[in-house]
């Protein structure tokens, strides 16, 4: 006489067999899930002439915005969409706060900030001191620039905080400025040395502002910018304008210089 199982036991055996059959299916037979696409960076560029693209040529408006500037170059990168570029030549940090931050909103996910050089007016310092560093005009320019340095850090920190409030999910990249003159060139020209010192002090203030605002959970980074040997007096092809008779190009990046800016920003983005 064969073995008899109760209805409950029969159902249990059937269920166990079904589970065993399911587990016997090779794992590779399951359909692969595609990785989700990387999100598009919704990008706004604020700042001064460096953020506008002054020095690169092909200007679009009175702010000297150029399609060869680094915001447009970043826009051309895959999955980057430059929504707005309110950056304008001559803007100080206070100008950016007053006239540009309104272009940032909660949908913004990437912000670049290049500002501070106009607060020190380094181009005017060089123009005043290059002909003769012993003149009263040069001495006044140096004193004015030096006096402005301590305020840059707190002002930039305030600007970053405002941008964070407007776009809490955005990565904010604050760029530095290249030290424009080669060391040997600056050693022979006091005006160039003064500008180099100003650029170093400015970068220290900007980096300090980023450090002060980069609390846990905040997405703010400092992107130092160096042109290597392609500085004034260091290369036959500098990436900065050196002609004192050309106020538009003087101490501003060339198109190749803005490529270096683009690379510095992209390297800094997590």
Q: Which keywords apply here?
A:
45% helix, 270 residues, globular, five-stranded parallel beta sheet, alpha/beta, single chain
Note down, in words, how this protein is organized:
The protein has 10 helices and 5 strands. With 270 residues, the chain is α/β, with parallel strands linked by helices. It has a 5-stranded parallel sheet with strand order 2-1-3-4-5. The chain is globular.
Based on CA atoms alone, the radius of gyration comes out at 28 Å
Strand content: 5-15%
Shape: globular
- How many strands, what sense, and barrel or not for the largest sheet? 5 strands, parallel
Counting DSSP H or I runs of 4 or more residues, the number of helices is 10
| Low-confidence regions | 18-31
pLDDT averaged residue by residue: 88
Q: How are the strands of the biggest sheet laid out side by side? A: 2-1-3-4-5
- Determine the fraction of residues in helical runs and give it as a percent range: 40-55%
Please trace the helix and strand order, writing H or E for each element.
HEHHEHEHHHEHHEH
Strand tally: 5
Question: How far apart lie the N and C ends?
Answer: 74 Å
State the secondary-structure class: alpha/beta
């Amino acid at each position: 006489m064969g073995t008899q199982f109760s209805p409950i036991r029969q159902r249990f055996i059937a269920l166990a067999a079904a589970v065993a059959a399911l587990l016997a299916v090779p794992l590779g037979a399951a359909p692969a899930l595609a990785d989700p696409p990387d999100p598009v960076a919704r990008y706004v560029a604020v700042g001064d002439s460096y953020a506008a693209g002054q020095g690169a040529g092909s200007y679009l408006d009175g702010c000297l915005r150029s399609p060869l500037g680094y915001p447009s170059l970043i826009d051309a990168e895959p999955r980057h969409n430059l929504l707005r570029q309110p950056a304008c030549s001559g803007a100080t940090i206070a100008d950016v706060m007053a006239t540009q931050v309104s272009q940032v909103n909660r949908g913004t996910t990437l912000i670049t900030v290049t500002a501070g050089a106009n607060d020190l007016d380094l181009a005017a310092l060089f123009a005043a001191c290059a002909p003769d560093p012993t003149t009263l005009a040069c001495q006044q320019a140096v004193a004015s620039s030096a006096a402005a340095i301590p305020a840059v850090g707190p002002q930039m920190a305030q600007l970053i905080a405002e941008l964070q409030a407007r776009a809490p999910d955005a990565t904010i990249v604050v760029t530095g400025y290249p030290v424009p003159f080669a060391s040997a060139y600056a050693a022979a020209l006091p005006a160039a040395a003064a500008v180099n010192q100003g650029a170093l002090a400015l970068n220290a203030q900007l980096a300090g502002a980023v450090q002060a605002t980069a609390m846990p959970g905040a997405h703010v980074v400092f992107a130092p910018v160096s042109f290597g040997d392609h500085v004034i007096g260091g290369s036959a092809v500098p990436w900065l304008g050196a002609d004192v008779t050309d106020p538009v190009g003087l101490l501003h990046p060339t198109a190749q210089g803005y490529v270096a800016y683009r690379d510095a920003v992209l390297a800094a983005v997590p």
